[in-house]
Specification:
The protein is an alpha/beta fold. It has 14 helices and 27 strands. The protein has a 7-stranded mixed beta sheet with strand order 12-25-26-27-23-24-13, with helices on one face.
Length: about 575
Amino acid sequence: MSNDEKKKPLDFIRAMVEDDLRTGKYGGRVATRFPPEPNGYLHIGHTKAIWLNYGIAQEYGGTFNLRFDDTNPASEKQRYVDAIIEDIRWLGVDWEDRLYFASDYFEQMYEWGEKLIRDGSAYVDSLSEAEIRDYRGTVMEPGRPSPFRDRPAEESLDLYRRMREGEFEDGAHVLRAKIDMAHPNMTMRDPLLFRIRHESHYRRGDEWCIYPMYDYAHCLEDAIEDITHSLCTLEFKVNREIYDWVLDAVGIERPRTEQTEFARLNIDYTVMSKRKLVQLVDGGHVSGWDDPRLPTVAGLRRRGVTPEAIRKFNEMIGVADVDSRIEYSRLEFAIRDDLNWRSPRRLAVLDPLKVVITDYPEGRVEWIDAPEFPHDIGKEGTRRMPFTREVWIERSDFMEEPFRKFYRLAPDREVRLRHAYVIRCDEVVKDEDTGEIVELRCSHDPDTLGANPADGRRIKGTIHWVSAEHAVPAEVRLYDRLFSVPDPEADLGEDQDFTVNLNPESLIVVEGARVEPALADDRPGTRYQFERHGYFMSDPEASSQNGLVFNRTVTLRDSWARMEKDR
Ligand code: ATP
Ligand code: MG
């Protein structure tokens, strides 16, 4: 740990871990885990839980388990297991040989169920699902005991075994804890432990037709793996009581795993639950789980975000015990901060306008050594940029009738071409029919290559350009926020869902871009700053139908802050 990190005040979870180490509660042991359910891809919210658990294990010489919490056959898939493993590896997190599956514990969980029945702590209930709900009562009213609550243990045991053997239909019986139907905490009103589901499990196949419920399974998974600090998000606060109850009932002795809750990560302009992300993927609103607009780890990776940026973001926002929404611009800030020092600069023209430098000889090519990084980054390196008589500039860098403070190119005005000459616009050529500007005819000052004009006149603007002869065609994908409002789930009408708030401009595909030739031979997945446009990464997968393909990771500035102020 560096001195800097040491000085940072501890978050409340690390403070607790340090306390436990001081008092020797777990004999100096720290064991954490990340328990994803393989029913979708990981999102950036999960990375908060990953860094918290993994970070604590690392900082305190503990162990970190990756455990798939795969107790529900309905939506879990091997493909999600594979994707989650790939994502966590990419994040740089190492679980060594501690990869576990809750579905490997079914037998043990089943047996503990028998024990609970024998001890009078559980019973098989034969009410229907709807009846169970009805008997449970409400926050205001106590529940009523099921007529099966006091059936003899022998009878429950027999039914429980036959549930497992597959004798009954889904929903015919359930195993329930026998606690208190009037308990003020609703989750303690005889919660379900096992239910019948005749459904194949992606790992266990048809071995099982009863599956454990979360409140029963999760604490047992932690206990089996000898976890010390079981960290989960705040909405599970009410489940803590049942967590401890189950562990007591099966006889796990203290000191043992304890649950602590922290605030989940929510970010503006996006949605963060797998259930919602599935809806976007399956509904065709995005191109897949790795669509660069999604807050998924795979999407962020494809967009060009690095694991280091995600980690920095998590450190920046910290860990607290009250929920909050994080501004999207803070994520963008962390991404820019990381890409700034690692991305060599390049020039790319997204909306090209032809400039002919009439006093520059035809056929002449000057190769300019242009630095890869600005001075303040302190990194060496240059790439070669060809300068020729015809170049492309950005259409928006020319105005026929410039407004005040427009310091770029205009008739009879001068501008510097980045790393090259100062040029003057002498003539504007228009399409005779449409009036559209099709070409600018300019002259250059031959003494200004990398130097100021000899006569001391000041050039206010610098614009980017590429050689028309050497430039490479490219498709540039400009990604933006997926939703156009900060909270996509707020203020929805009766039959609206959050997809009405999708930002129609979250992806703009620019097909006719021209980029400097130094970009042509690079590996896909290389990151750059296109000067004045933002940070980009060449797409690792897209084919080159339209030439090279670049994804914009983030703009150079927070343009939304202005828009929000205006609103
Ligand atoms: P989702 O609603 O996206 O499916 P989940 O909690 O159901 O989320 P799990 O796969 O069960 O997804 O989550 C694995 C772990 O990640 C849990 O410990 C959970 O608390 C944590 N986690 C999930 N979402 C977030 C989030 N937004 N911020 C922090 N931690 C999260
Ligand atoms: Mg879940």
